[in-house]
Amino acid sequence: MQMTDEQLKLITTKLSTIKDCSPFYAEKFKDIDPSDVRTQEDFEKLPFSEKDDLRRVYPLGLQAVPDEEVVRIHSSSGTTGTPVIIPYTAQDVTDWAIQFERCYRTAGITNLDRIQITPGYGLWTAGIGFQLGCERLGAMAIPMGPGNTEKQLKMMQDLHSTVITGTSSYALLLAEEISTRGLRDKLDLKKGVIGSERWGEKMRHRIANELGIEIFDIYGLTEIYGPGIGISCEAHHGMHVWEDFVYVEIVDPKTGEVLPDGEVGEIVLTTLRKQGAPLIRYRTHDLSRIIPGACTCEYGSHHPRIDTIVGRTDDMVKVKGCNMFPAQIEEVINFTEGTSSEYQMMIEAINGRDVITLLFETALTGEDRDKCERELEAIFKAKIGCTPEAKGVPIGELPRSEKKTKRIFDSRY
């Protein structure tokens, strides 16, 4: 993607002071003179930043402003190691709210809407980010947080919520409860703003159909403000990323080479205005592509689009010589007639060989279910290259989550 003149100006301005204000980048760029960066080509020679780099400077080694300018900190979950602490200035918080308000407006949400916020609050960026944008928009925030489904449904009815926000896993759980209780006609929901994890088409259609809503994908990560740096629009063909706050690159995960628009690779992000913890060429490990050309919506000519996230570079598993990502498994589920959206895949080493068991939910029984299992195995073999043992289970039998749902379990290591 071609860097704009404004982006280059913001980047070179940030680079001119970054070694002086950031101990992290003083070390990272110790053999580099950032003032030498005058073009996009120069910028693409700078080293990447990695999450492990950020963990090494825990807790506040990323901080690039004096203590008195830090008004808040947020943190990654830290479920896979040392958490990453991100400090925010007052301007960072405002900039985040500006981006999030823009996300809501892009989804056609106005100050007349009532937004039920189900993501978690606290150190995690999700809940408070959704609320920031809601309040800046002037809509009514209903800050429920996750869990307590009984109360969620009561507030949804009593307060006439028009927008639901959350993870796809929790949105599905709510959709199933609403369907089971026959509540759909008692609700005023019109739109859903869903993010935090990737999800397949069958899951998307189930949530949209059972809730009767239009769904918008939202993108973000704690290290880069949080959710709200990008969202899908009414065209529903990719997510716009706000180019006045974030610069996007797609690189080859193995070589780090910048890829042409349209090719799938790893998303690399650079913050253009962030003060508390600026990041230069940060590797997200999310896999996507820049969609070439302008979108038909009002943001089309100004803000580039990334496609639906395919997966993560660290999500890949290798079984029987086959590399596979969750997105490929979801594609198999989607192609198999008779399956629902939920699945679990177990990978085990038994008697020296890898064995894959793929559980999937289905309403089918008896011979119809057996036929569906064989069909799924054949499609899996054709699309991915190896054959699992497919087992259909009743709808609702696999676990649901109020946060993110873990679907692949590898016990070989």
TrEMBL record:
EC number: 6.2.1.30
Swiss-Prot/TrEMBL keywords: Ligase, Nucleotide-binding
GO biological process: phenylacetate catabolic process
Positions of the AMP-dependent synthetase/ligase domain: 44-269
Domain AMP-dependent ligase C-terminal: 321-412
GO molecular function, one term: nucleotide binding
Pfam families: AMP-binding, AMP-binding_C_2
Pathway in which the depicted protein is active: Aromatic compound metabolism; phenylacetate degradation
Alphabetical list of Gene3D superfamilies matching this protein: 3.30.300.30, N-terminal domain of ligase-like
PANTHER family: BLR5969 PROTEIN
Family: Belongs to the phenylacetyl-CoA ligase family.
Subunit structure, interactors included: Monomer.
The protein's name in its UniProt record: Phenylacetate-coenzyme A ligase
Organism: Ellagibacter isourolithinifaciens
Taxonomic path: Bacteria, Bacillati, Actinomycetota, Coriobacteriia, Eggerthellales
